[in-house]
Amino acid sequence: MTNRTPLIAGNWKMFKTCPEAIETAAQLVKLLAGAREDIDVMIAPSFTALAPVSDVIKGSCVSLGAQNIFWEAQGAFTGEISPAMLVSAGCKYVIIGHSERRQYFNETDETVNKRIQAAVNNNLIPVMCVGESEKERESKNTFSVLDKQVKKGLEEFSPDDLERLVIAYEPVWAIGTGKTATSDQAQEAHQFLRSVFEKSFGNTLAKSIRILYGGSVKPNNIAELMAMPDVDGALVGGASLDPETFSNIVQFKR
Ligand code: PGA
Questions:
Q1: What is the CATH number of the domain that holds 40?
Q2: For residue 2, what pLDDT is reported?
Q3: Ligand 1 pocket, 217 CB below 6 A?
């Protein structure tokens, strides 16, 4: 048995204006009122909607996350957002190194590392995304890609620093494509990731770290994924935008 509380997280990406985000969050809070308490729930709206959504979800079972963070405390960095800004907007979590950031915005393992450091220093829970592309999977490089992303992304960290870290395994070929990894493929990757943590940071962290699966998670595949021993939750994109769909994912039937 582990003490890994499952986490179901919604990544709203660049969707929803402030009024739309407020409305969605309010509906979600209603739908999840009285939901079971053995699951952590997080939503990550756009930066502009963080503070208003934080007000809406106050006192509910839903926590707030951001989709990115900059590593400097403050300064002349036009367009960036600081850790303190996220904390003051009510964030508990921050998604780091999403494949869309890596693919379109030159995010590297080195910048992921700096962002995780900033999150840890500011008491935010980092949700670090890793995952292979279709080409990397086809050329049988999935494990080496995951190994490198974890080792470089977490270079110089101690197990204590990473106590609250969450990993999201998101195979790039499964994101927004409707192609979900099978539960066996997810389990295989998650088990491998746990073994990387065991080698790099020891057994205690490897056993306690939460590893989420992400990539076309829907109400009809969540139960099968969650039944896998090393799947501790999900990072949901498209299916998190509709409150009813997302609440069905959170309240999946075991
Ligand atoms: P998806 O996105 O659920 O739309 O595939 C997942 C993600 O990018 O986090």
A1: 3.20.20.70
A2: 57
A3: yes
Domain membership flag for residue 1: no
Q: What is the pLDDT of residues 148-183, one digit of tens each?
A: 999 999 999 999 999 999 999 999 999 988 888 899
The structure tokens listed for 200 are: 């790099």
Domain for residue 2, yes or no? Answer: no
Structure tokens at 113: 């590392």
235 in contact with ligand 1, CB cutoff 6 A: yes
Q: CA-CA distance, 199 to 40, in Å (whole number)?
A: 28
The 3-state DSSP class for residue 247 equals: helix
Ligand 1 pocket test target in 217, 221, 246 with most atoms within 8 Å of CB: 217
Q: Is 212 helix (H, G, I), strand (E, B) or coil?
A: strand
Sites in the chain below the pLDDT cut of 70 = 1-2
* Euclidean distance between CA atoms 175 and 191, whole angstroms: 20
